[in-house]
Amino acid sequence: MIRLFVNGLAASAGGGLTYLRNVIPHLARRGDTETTVLLSPSLRREFSELPNVCLIEASDSQGTLRRFAYEQTALPKLIRQSGAQVLVAAGNFALWNSPVPQILLSRNSLYTSGDFLRDVRARGDYAIWADTVVKGWAARRSICRAEVTVAPSAAFAQELSQWSGRTVISLHHGFDPEAFANNAPPLPPEVETQLDQEESTLRLLFVSHYNYYRNFETLFRAMPILDKRLQGKKAKLYLTCKLDSAENPGKYHAEGAASLTSDLRKSGAIVELGTVPYRSLYHLYRRCHIYVTPAYAESFAHPLIEAMSCGLPIVASDLPVHREICAGAGVYFPRFSPEALVERVVQIHESPESAIRLSQNGLRRARDFSWSEHVERLVVLAEELVQSRN
Length: 390
Fold this sequence. Notes:
Layout: E1 2-7, H1 14-28, E2 33-39, H2 41-44, E3 53-57, H3 64-82, E4 86-89, E5 102-105, H4 114-123, H5 126-145, E6 148-151, H6 154-164, E7 169-170, H7 177-181, H8 189-192, E8 202-206, H9 216-230, E9 235-239, H10 255-260, H11 262-267, E10 270-272, H12 281-286, E11 290-293, H13 302-309, E12 314-317, H14 320-326, E13 330-333, H15 338-350, H16 352-366, H17 371-389
Parallel strand pairs: 1-2, 1-4, 2-3, 4-5, 5-6, 6-7, 8-9, 8-11, 9-10, 11-12, 12-13
């Protein structure tokens, strides 16, 4: 029996939430593991009582600096009280004075991304630039503090190793196709009414809240070019966000992107669905034809696997992470080229054989990711840490 303490307090959006939503139930199924999980009150409400898992809410989780201070001061006591033997720090930052060995899960690619720092400077968002630099320093120091650092892809592990000078282990995040698809609740009525029912419409999908590093602007600039290339056939891009700063997590300003797409939104070429419940996403993927992502920084990208599992061909920016995750299920384009993005979309649209091949490759590739295997390897790492201390 091994006892773990998982600090999941930093999970507030995107991949962090997806990670805990899947890992916690798998830890609960293990009879050889007892786990205490610290998480936000909103995420705690998603879980009922689970065997072998104790879920506790943080008393203070508002803002990165306040959360970091809370973790550094309160966590050691909570870990001792839980009797945990290993800390799993799931939010990029290690505990400076951990009473037990710790495994750091590092998954934020912004701290190593020169593109992101150039982007925020070009936008004049110097507060975000400074915040990223400071957090990057803490993230790099965290890799040195932790006994083991784990990245969700081999490409990002290599990037972190070069950045920090320390060995970083690659451990893919998982995917459970049955849990994702089975008994998925229907899409909310307000989302359903916005989905184009015309079979002739080419439906593109991008699943993300608005931020800079997912490079929405390149995708938006591609849409008028795509419209001309399709010669009268309609194309629609569906977004799972609103181009409104107040509607998205973080301090990203969406107004520039909104002004860039004003005419496209009026014509219906871009449809802002807003946040779609995670459990209903299966139905949204199944209603679309091609999944697109122009992101210029990424460490794993769960939506790619979700899309592949639903049979969607992938058009992705040419990042090592995207090639690693999608392999033969995708076609790739230079990350800041809307023209090349359009070429890849048209390539799939005009070649049914290519679309079928990519779809079949994706269905097979999605089966390569497993949450149970991820948790198994994580527990083995923890056991090895405990044994090395004995």
